[in-house]
Specification:
Two copies of one chain form a homodimer. By secondary structure, chain A is of the alpha/beta class. Chain A is built from 14 helices and 20 strands. In chain A, the strands form six sheets. In chain A, strands 1-2-6-3-7-18 form a six-stranded mixed β-sheet. In chain A, strand 4 and strand 5 form a beta hairpin. Chains A and B meet through strand 11, helix 7, helix 10, strand 12 and strand 13 of A and strand 11, helix 7, helix 10, strand 12 and strand 13 of B.
Chain lengths: 460, 460
Amino acid sequence: MWQQYLDDNHDRFFEEYLDLVRIPSISSLPEHMADVEKAAEWTATRLTAAGIENVEIMPTGGHPVVYGDWLHAGDDKPTLLIYAHFDVQPADPYELWDTPPFEPTIRDGRVYARGASDDKGGLVTPIFAVEALLQTTKKLPINIKFCLEGQEEIGSPQLPPFMAEHKEKFACDLVASADGLQWSETEPMLVVALKGLCAVEISVRGPKGDLHSGLHGGVIQNPLEALANIIASFRTTDGKIAVEGFFDEVVELTAEDREKIAAVPFDGPAYKDQLGVTDFYGEPDYTTRERNWARPTLEINGMWGGFQGDGTKTVLPSEAHAKVTCRLVANQDPHQIEQLLIDHIKKHAPVGVTVDVRAGRGVAYPFLMDSDHPANQIAAEVLTELYGQSPYFVRVGGSVPVIPMFQKELGADTINFGWTVGDENLHAPNEFFRLANFKRGMRGYCMLFERLATADLGNK
Amino acid sequence: MWQQYLDDNHDRFFEEYLDLVRIPSISSLPEHMADVEKAAEWTATRLTAAGIENVEIMPTGGHPVVYGDWLHAGDDKPTLLIYAHFDVQPADPYELWDTPPFEPTIRDGRVYARGASDDKGGLVTPIFAVEALLQTTKKLPINIKFCLEGQEEIGSPQLPPFMAEHKEKFACDLVASADGLQWSETEPMLVVALKGLCAVEISVRGPKGDLHSGLHGGVIQNPLEALANIIASFRTTDGKIAVEGFFDEVVELTAEDREKIAAVPFDGPAYKDQLGVTDFYGEPDYTTRERNWARPTLEINGMWGGFQGDGTKTVLPSEAHAKVTCRLVANQDPHQIEQLLIDHIKKHAPVGVTVDVRAGRGVAYPFLMDSDHPANQIAAEVLTELYGQSPYFVRVGGSVPVIPMFQKELGADTINFGWTVGDENLHAPNEFFRLANFKRGMRGYCMLFERLATADLGNK
């Protein structure tokens, strides 16, 4: 029934989606504040029109969050929170766009516009799915809440305190993120892990000022050399991170985990070409992809001190600095790892210099969800039906702070249920979204809602 | 006899010296080219007036050299080449001078002016000494040549090719540098060693561009970490330089050398305070002063790569760079040490990155002269008489390229025979020269000429 409704109303839904895409809701630019607000209003209005109740535009201190719910499925049914965002990246450089970024243009079965894929295509599909179900069955198979936000492209700075304040309102059994990628146009994926993040900055101070290397050579500890030794101490000669306690909380990969990772296509030579390196490098006993997806990393992001100009300056520098970040995996706690780094650096501080370590601002927690989680199994069934192929279980080396935030604040895992493909020029000129995925997305959400109705997500 | 002449003509000599000091012969500033020329002409005229023959202003391609000789002492007498320079440092910032830098002012037994001490006070003393001897004895006890130059303060760039071209003209048995320091107002010194210099620049290249540390973390060798490991490899954990072959040509200190060094006053706590460090650091088994004066050093002058701004940027940098110089001692060859550094760096280049090493422009050779050399013994006698205390035998951590150049091009050692004291604001506002040293210098050169007449400097 809902399938017929989706078909019958496809052109209207599509036009509505294009209306949203036309709003230049760039969250990072002050001159587009009103446009972000306008996109929030469009979203609230559209939720209400779909039959969602209690819709409100909630202030966060920054760009707003749009809430709405439909909670009449009964207490024995799970509550799903749907996450997406209505803000977009800036569109410059405008001259590199083939058609204007906020005038969506259809070519070759694709909609070209800023935000067409990230994330307005994702945002509308569950709303239209809700309308189709409510119009055809007068009810939804599960309880549904929406958390649609307007500051994702600037890092969602107000979202964690906002969510902590509104835990009750957003309480749910599961989150579905409509801000997610699929592996390719024809291959689906589910994301079961994201990395966390922490940062420290090291400052090594030696003599009061830069010294003449002749007059004072051989006399003091060189801060640059001291820093190089500290950095060299972070890893054993075979490439393993040597910070004491670093791996203590790491959830080790099982044989099954490693099989799932190995099942995902990986073209080593092509990847090397892409990066421009001759060899991969990293922790021993793990594959390149395992290191990238499922092992914590420690990276020097920047390092500097002394003379950087042309030619020679025979100076013993007064100071040396480095910036270090770690990407973390479950169950590493970013604050604890920060402390381990600080302890390690202090322990390896050479004689004759002062070493200060400062924790960076902002951390992210890692995320890990069992691929056998009932919600993943159901999502996998739906994706298999939609794509004709079962999804890859993927781990992501990067950090998506909202997902561990939902885990922390709401106690809910998040399934990846978005329709973007990585080649769609996200954050770049000529962003596009595939029309096939617009249809697939609406159908997918209807199927997901129906199948989750019988799932035990811990709500019983 | 000459002593009486010096006393009788003191005021005239002093006025002549002030005339030279009034010429703003700043070699680094194009607008003072004519002044450097004027100082050369003053010098040539004054040499001739003193009775020096064959005086000429010789072109070098840059600022000129003034040559002159008196070679009638006989073949059995040594030939001494006297070195000094008539150019000066810039005088800015002018507002920090108590009196104008090129209007010499006498206060408290000192002449305040740019160049008063470095090196016009040094330059005139042997000229006036020659005049005193020729006027009173009608001859000089030894053969004398002058090499007075105008580009010392810009590093004497044209001097090495100039000297190589005019080896015959400047051929001598010994050089006396009137561009030299004494330990203090009351304590003389002789310099028996200077350090050489060589430089390399390291560039480590990894991926084509900076990478996202989440998307590509754990995959590649980080160029900054690779560089830190290379730098850490330069030294053993106990502080000794670990570059293979680095010490092979080093002339080890004898027990007597170490005694001479230990005899020179050294106030460790005051020196630490001056530098602002809590501890000295360096090669084990040598004292701080031995390391500074008599042991080769390897120093990182600068190091950089990746993100240096405020906050956090989770980037894997594409490149990392470092600048390295070594101060060398006899008999290390700077070109050979450069090659050892290059070999070491290549050998320690980690997998997954490309490491380029480039030798820096310009090297300096080390200088070492036996403190028992007959010229040093004679100079020591003269200094002991002048100061009432025997000189310290000092080694210098810095490089003075002209001195090893004389050794290389003319096969002649150089004795330190200048009158500057380190506290005289060289290269700084309110430079001054002590009147007592003006007198002492003229007397000292007369005594040196007389005593060298009986020395065997290899000329026999």
